[in-house]
Amino acid sequence: MTNPLLSPSPLPFGLPPFEAITTEDYAEAVESGLAEHLQEIQQIAGNPTPANFENTALAMEHCGLLLNRAAAAFFTLVSADASEAIRELETGLSPKFAAHQDAIYMNRSLYERFTAIDTTGLDAESDRLVQEYLKEFRQSGVQLDHNGQARLRKINAELSRLGTEFGQRVKEAMKAASLLLDDDADLAGLPAEDIAGAAEAAKAGGHDGRYLLTLIQPSNQPALAWLENRAIRRRLFEASLARGTDGGSLDVRDLVTATVRLRAEKASLLGFQNFAELVVDQQTAPDFEAVRAMLARLAPAALGNAQTEAQALAESAGHSLEPWDWAYYSAQVRREKYHVDEQVIRPYFSLETVLAEGVFFAASQLYGITFHERLDLAGYHEDVRVWEVRNDDGSSLGLFLGDYYSRESKRGGAWMNSLVEQSRLLGTQAVVINNLNITKPAPGEPALLSLDEVRTLFHEFGHALHGLFSDVTYPRFSGTSVPRDFVEYPSQVNEMWIMWPEVLKNYARHYATGEALPQEIVDHINESLLWGEGFATTEYLGAALLDVAWHVLSAEDVPADVLAFEAKALAAAGIAHPLIPPRYRTGYFQHIFAGAGYAAGYYSYIWSEVLDADTVEWFKENGGLTRTNGERFRRELLARGNSQDPMESFRAFRGRDAQLEPLLKRRGLE
Questions:
Q1: Closest listed residue to residue 397, CA positions, set 463, 309, 469
Q2: According to the 3-state scheme, what is the secondary structure of 339-391?
Q3: Are residues 43 and 131 in the same domain?
Q4: Which of the residues 186, 253, 274, 537 could staple to 302 if both were Cys, CB 3.0 to 4.6 A apart?
Q5: Catalytic residue numbers, as ranges
Q6: Backbone angles phi, psi at 65, to 5 degrees
Q7: Distance in angstroms (rounded) separating the CA atoms of residues 205 and 221
Q8: Are residues 118 and 189 in the same domain?
Q9: Domain range spanning residue 437?
Q10: Tell me, what's the pLDDT at 670?
Q11: Looking at the 3D structure of the chain, how many domains does it have?
């Protein structure tokens, strides 16, 4: 049979025909795509005609279509539905992708053609295209001599292998750390639907009649807020923190030290003081010192707020606290002091209603778009749903796929990725996916969400809107292809609609009775918004500053003892708290060690939140959820992608540079 990936998909919007694609098809298509793309690159580099925009930069944007198509489909499966065969294929292919990238951006002949392009008379987006290519060449080592390039190629290949191995071990470690319990009495306090989910998870794992508490990616697990049994809380907490550093076959400490050492060497080869300096050179932050200064400014206030919260928790508990007690007594304080009880609230947040009447509703009110489920289209797994998104005039905007439930074949966390990127040059419209890891309910039961899960749903859809609304010429600039410390900004802005009265009353309805969430509870939630910000900011800054600590090291200074270094780094940064571990510890910090693109860039969440908080203030000042406001945000920012400097896009929208004060107010850090 013909490999479906070797030709453009016949399905609407170029959605891959996943049901017809085999593992062998992915392997063949990727290998063919790598070869074809390299041949196209060689034709551009070897073109005897003098270089110009059309035969060099534009030609680059037209090539690699087979590779892009195959890689987008393949890596979607790697993250969301990886079989053993897919994982093995990933291990084999990842170094080849790294080598392929090097073959392009270390090609001096190709680089010289770009330097020869006369940009006089080009429109702004086309001129930016040339400049961005030149920048990537220089950051990729095109200036190095033969020996330097050879060494850099080896480093990149090994980093790719290490990142793949880290991601695979972390995924397996998260499964291995799940807590298997025999008696439902051990689950006392857990919501009934979560107990049913734990029973289903155990049954799926071959442990019928028992209960499996599966883990999510961050350090703190949701069940810690509910479990009344302190010993069970401790077991769950310690299992979470031990991932990747327990000395077993899934220990990642060897991968971490090797990765950090190679990244430091890479930065040195490219002329940077350390890997963090190299990364920030590719971001919107003016320099690395600006990043460090912002984190240092926030840390003392965050830690002070966390300590105040800890004292309140100890008073509520009536005994000294341990780390596994924090979430439990924090929920208790929310109930006692703020009258906010997650168990009372969750029945008002069913996944189906939050999605259709909350997430989609807000987008429709703001941007005029509508969502039409396409039951004739299938994703890569039976849980994946597909919607066609249309503009207010009925024209098609693209496809949105939602994959919301956790499963063994899916990595932890939540994310958005693109299967097809919008481009006027190629005539393509966006096909984007949101992945979450919500516990799948028992058959016939609704999936009830916590407030945090509601926030994640809105957040990830903000990324989806960034991809769907892209309106650029060149695929290189499409959608979320912006600097890492800008990419979280639109998604964080979309979180503002969660508690917006017009939106909340539309989706917060009891799944069984249809009753609206009582206004009294809404008021209590709003009053409690600052509660827990000390913890949240401290655990986030712990991870961000740990990331920084690993990536300012020289190759010679990489420590042998990973855990000792982690403790020392947190203490030195002034963010160590005995009751609050970093949101991600080194052993499962997938963002920075598994090739997720956040290495030396985890600061980007709070950097982007400065823009986000300022933008929320603008919406409030200008009438909130209106089509006029939505059109401005879509036109000036979401549609631009990376076709112009993202900070120019922000200034065009906001009318000035961002101010820090709204963020400080939001997080209680004034």
A1: 469
A2: CCCHHHHHHHCEHHHHHHHHHHHHHHHHHCCEEEECCCCCCCCCCCEEEEEEC
A3: yes
A4: 537
A5: 460
A6: -70, -40
A7: 20
A8: no
A9: 346-514
A10: 83
A11: 3
